[in-house]
Design goal:
81% helix, 2 domains, globular, 266 residues
Length: 266
C-alpha cells in the first residue's frame, strides 16, 4: 500500500512536469511556424498549449509520466532491498561480488531513468508536431536523434554549459548577497555562530530553484531542433529549397546552413 501511494505521488508529479514541458513545446512550435511577412515576431500562446493538452494529448502525457513513475518506484524498491542486505550483513566469499553487482544495478537503473526522461521529452516534441501517439512519437524522436546525433549532441552540450553557468551564477550570487547581508547586519550576525551554515543552505536552495528555471532553456533547445528538422523535411516533401524554408524564423537560417552540407539545397 505504501509503494502504491508513492507510485501515485510520483505519477502525479511526473504528469505535472510533463504538462509543463508540453505547454512550453507548443509555445515554441507555435512561434516557429507562425512567422511570416505579416507576423515577423511569430505567435506563441500558452493558452493554446493547455487547450491542445486537455483536448488531444493528455493520454500521451499520462503514459510518459507512468513510465517515469515506474522507473522511480523500481529504484526505490531496489534501494530498500539494498538497505536490508546491508542490515543483515554481507560476509563471506560472495560479499564483494554482491556489492559489485548491486552497484552495477544501481548504475543501470540511474542510466535507465535518465534515458526515459530524455526520450519522453523528445517524444512530447513529436506529439506536438505530428499529433501521433506516445509510442509512435517516441520511436520517431529516437530515430531523429540517431539521424542527427551530432547536432543534438552539440545542442545538448551547449545547453548543458549554458544552464550550468546560469545555475552556478545564480547560486553564487545569492550566496554572496546573503554573506554581505549577514556581515552588515550586526544584530543578526551576533546570533549566528558561523556564517558557513546559512551560506551553504542559501547556495543549495538557490541552486535547486535555478535548476528548475534553467531547465526551460534545455526544453526550448530540444523543441527548436525538432521544429527545425520537421521544417527541413517539409521543404523536401514540397520540393522547396531548404535554405529558404516556409515560415522559418530568420534566426534559424544560419543554423540550417551550418548543419546542411553544400549541394543539398533541394
Amino acid at each position: 500500500m505504501v509503494y502504491f501511494s508513492l507510485f501515485c505521488f510520483f505519477w502525479i508529479c511526473a504528469l505535472i512536469m510533463a504538462c509543463t514541458e508540453y505547454v512550453q513545446i507548443v509555445a515554441v512550435a507555435s512561434w516557429y511556424f507562425s512567422q511570416n511577412e505579416e507576423n515577423p515576431g511569430g505567435n506563441y500562446s500558452i493558452c493554446r498549449g493547455y487547450w491542445w493538452m486537455f483536448r488531444y494529448n493528455l493520454g500521451s502525457l499520462a503514459f510518459g509520466s507512468f513510465l517515469i513513475a515506474c522507473v522511480i518506484i523500481i529504484r526505490l524498491i531496489f534501494e530498500y532491498i539494498d538497505k536490508k542486505m546491508k542490515g543483515v550483513g554481507e560476509e563471506g566469499v560472495m560479499a564483494a561480488p554482491v556489492r559489485c553487482l548491486m552497484k552495477c544495478i544501481r548504475c543501470c537503473l540511474a542510466c535507465c531513468h535518465r534515458f526515459v526522461k530524455y526520450i519522453n521529452k523528445n517524444a512530447y516534441c513529436q506529439v506536438v508536431l505530428t499529433g501521433d501517439s506516445f509510442c509512435t512519437s517516441a520511436i520517431n524522436g529516437f530515430l531523429l536523434i540517431l539521424k542527427h546525433s551530432v547536432t543534438f549532441a552539440f545542442t545538448g552540450g551547449v545547453g548543458f554549459i549554458f544552464t550550468f553557468i546560469g545555475k552556478m551564477s545564480i547560486a553564487i550570487g545569492n550566496t554572496i548577497t546573503i554573506y554581505f547581508v549577514l556581515i552588515n547586519w550586526p544584530t543578526l550576525y551576533k546570533e549566528v555562530n558561523s556564517p558557513i551554515g546559512p551560506l551553504a543552505v542559501t547556495f543549495l536552495i538557490s541552486y535547486v530553484i535555478s535548476a528548475l528555471f534553467m531547465d526551460i532553456y534545455t526544453t526550448t533547445g530540444i523543441a527548436l531542433m525538432h521544429c527545425l528538422f520537421a521544417d527541413i523535411d517539409m521543404c523536401k516533401q514540397m520540393d522547396i529549397c531548404m535554405f529558404d524554408g516556409t515560415n522559418r524564423p530568420p534566426e534559424m537560417a544560419d543554423i540550417v546552413k551550418s548543419i546542411t552540407k553544400p549541394g543539398k539545397g533541394k
